[in-house]
Write a structure and sequence with these properties.
The complex is a heterodimer. Chain A is an alpha+beta fold. Chain A contains four helices and five strands. Chain B has one domain (5-140): Thiol Ester Dehydrase, Chain A, CATH 3.10.129. In chain B, strand 4 (111-119) and strand 5 (125-134) form a beta hairpin. The chains are: A alpha+beta, B alpha+beta. At the A-B interface, helix 1, helix 2, helix 4 and strand 2 of A face helix 1, helix 2, helix 4 and strand 2 of B.
Chain lengths: 141, 143
Amino acid sequence: MRYEISDLYVGQTAEFTKTISESDVYLFAGITGAQNPMQVNDVYAKQTRYGERIVHGMLSSSLISTVIGTQLPGNGTIYVRQNIQFKAPVFFGDTISAVVEVTDIFLEKNRVQLRTYCKNQHGEIVLDGFASVIPPKLSRL
Amino acid sequence: MRYVISELYVGQSAEFTKTISESDVYLFAGITGDHNPMHVNDIYAKQSRYKERICHGMLSSSLISTVIGTKLPGNGSIYVEQDLVFKAPVLFGDTISAIVEITEIDIEKNRVKLRTYCKNQDGTIVLDGYAVVIPPKYVESRW
């Protein structure tokens, strides 16, 4: 799926939802090297404020990039900026919806600003922020 | 490694370097569901402006979180905000250094601001931005 700038409108949204598994977190730790005990040491995590292991904030954040790159605006989009404010922890087994909503369209600059946030299965916003992207041009891949 | 706020100083920095492999990108695509053809379709990518598959921007960005969570300020840090500006593509096989440098310390609020950026093996900055974090407190756990 892909939209060029003239196909986009303010208020347009798309989302991607995934239940985050232990294997997701452990693979993410392996890929990034972020073997933080908060994510991969259950004995440590039990003694912390959260009482259990939590998901890397950047893993939940990456689901936003999934929506931008595959749905809205979709394939061929160029990522210019991503701002993320972390609001609440994500636990193993949480079902996270990454939601992207078009908030501003700058036709002359061919840029779009999006509100980007993730919520859990209780509707609680776990991270919030914005992205700036260049939508694809249909004349090229 | 971990530092409480009183041990931090402006200009302090830490980094983590990794050569990003094809398997990193493919696993990342599987975890996140981001099977954008720019990352996983070589035929498509060859016809694009970059002429080859590129890494997910959020994969390189995640190396910053690695430095913050494991080195500076380290274990027990709470991530408040991360801002990222993407500057240049990262290609498979590029060696990326994620660098974190303290720019502001607010002792009253127990918060620090860091410049966070990644550069490739040629010294090109591929992404730049800042993070706000709450450094760990020793009383929180014995680790």
